[in-house]
Design goal:
CATH topology of the largest domain: DNA Polymerase III, Chain A, domain 2
Strand content: 35-45%
Strand order of the largest sheet: 6-2-3-4-18-17-16-10-14
Helix content: 10-25%
CATH superfamily of the largest domain: DNA Polymerase III, subunit A, domain 2
Radius of gyration: 25 Å
Number of helices: 7
């Protein structure tokens, strides 16, 4: 095996494939990256028991072949390689990389124990890469972190006609994001749970533009874009449905500018120690933020449009509230409040949208963030 490739191209490709390698594994070969050169292309693959990644780049093939080398060591070497052309070859039991007078020799791993990469499941359709990545980033903030409840650490992915919905919950908040995609045929439907950590890695690895091909079967999901391919195992369980929780009949509505509110929450929450909540009191044309007790307290008042007759005080975990506000990109956020200690819906609104009725808002909103409020202590 022998090929030539630009150092910068090799480094980027190795970094992309190495992201799925396990930090520790009882099977040493799973720490390896498989390099295959043929027909002017270099394919680099990596996998563990949860996910696999494969990328193809252009490379001048001198002698076709393949080699398995330790992935993280190869990445360390690539980071210090010259950006110009690097000559790579298998020489006996070593894989050599040479460029601009610099030469590295890495030991190779045996192929005998290296598992075959999983095949890509059936491709069901395509989705815009940028919109998909944005939706993932909005939803994963609500995914659980407790590995003893693995399903709650996942993201529900639902396909229904030309609509794709992502949802996540850790039992204290519930986020849903719906957007359009392009099914490859009529009648495409699916309801699966993808590990949130893996889905985040996939979203971050996507190119800035173009389409992503989505593939699904009963046990895995695949994502393919412009020479890259990733597969990930699905969780067996199911996340709870959100439709009933998201019905906010009788809620009182408040609106305020998102960026000033986010800044105020971050500022006032400095004194909210030990998991103590941050209080929002809506009344008239303002909202008062308060946090802290006894010696250390903080407050700030902001303009707001309040739809209730009487004032209402609700309390939230400040970190959860900042996650919710930070997941929107609209100038205005709308709160729909059922009352102290009850559900609160957060949605975004641009100034030119007007103020739609509540039922239309729930039916048409693409991004909805449900929080459980705590009983106010002030």
């Amino acid at each position: 095996m022998e090929f030539r490739v630009a150092g910068a191209v090799l480094t980027d490709a190795v970094a992309w494939a190495a992201r799925v390698l396990p930090a520790r594994s009882p099977v040493p070969v799973l720490g390896g990256l498989l390099l295959e050169a043929a027909d002017g292309r270099l394919r680099i693959s990596g996998l563990d028991y949860e996910a696999s990644a494969r990328i193809e780049v252009e490379a001048e093939t001198v002698r076709p072949g393949r080699v398995l080398v330790m992935g993280r060591r190869l990445f360390d070497v690539c980071k210090v390689l010259p950006e110009r052309v690097v000559e790579c070859a298998v020489e006996g039991s070593r894989f050599s990389l040479t460029g601009d007078g610099v030469r590295f020799g890495l030991s190779v791993l045996p192929f005998d124990d290296y598992p075959a990469l999983p095949a890509l499941p059936e491709v069901l359709g395509e989705v815009d890469a940028a919109e998909f990545a944005a939706a993932v980033s909005q939803v994963v903030v609500a995914a659980g972190r407790d590995d003893t409840l693995p399903t709650l650490t996942g993201v529900r992915l639902v396909l229904d006609g030309e609509a794709m919905t992502l949802a996540a919950t850790d039992r204290y908040r519930f986020v849903v994001r719906t957007f359009a995609w392009k099914p490859g045929r009529d009648g495409v439907s699916a309801d699966v749970v993808v590990p949130a950590r893996r889905l985040t890695e996939i979203a971050r690895s996507l190119g800035p533009g173009g389409l992503v091909r989505l593939a699904l079967d009963g046990g895995s999901a695949g994502f393919e874009q412009a020479g890259t391919r990733t597969t990930v195992r699905l969780f067996d369980g199911r996340l709870p449905r959100h439709e009933k929780l998201f019905t906010m009949t009788g809620a009182v509505t408040a609106e305020t500018e998102r960026v000033p509110l986010f800044a105020a929450v971050k500022r006032v929450a400095v004194v909210a120690e030990g998991g103590s909540p941050l209080h929002l009191t809506f009344s008239g044309d303002s909202v008062l933020l308060q946090a802290g007790y006894e010696d250390d307290v903080a407050s700030q008042r902001l303009p707001a449009e309040w739809g209730g007759d009487d004032e209402m005080t609700v309390a939230f975990n400040p970190g959860y509230l900042m996650d919710a506000l930070g997941s929107f990109d609209t100038p205005v956020v709308r709160f729909e409040l059922m009352g102290p200690g009850q559900r609160a819906m957060v949605t975004g609104r641009t100034p030119d949208q007007g103020t739609p009725d509540r039922e239309a808002s729930h039916r048409d909103a693409a991004h909805r963030h449900l929080l459980m409020s705590a009983r106010p202590l002030l």
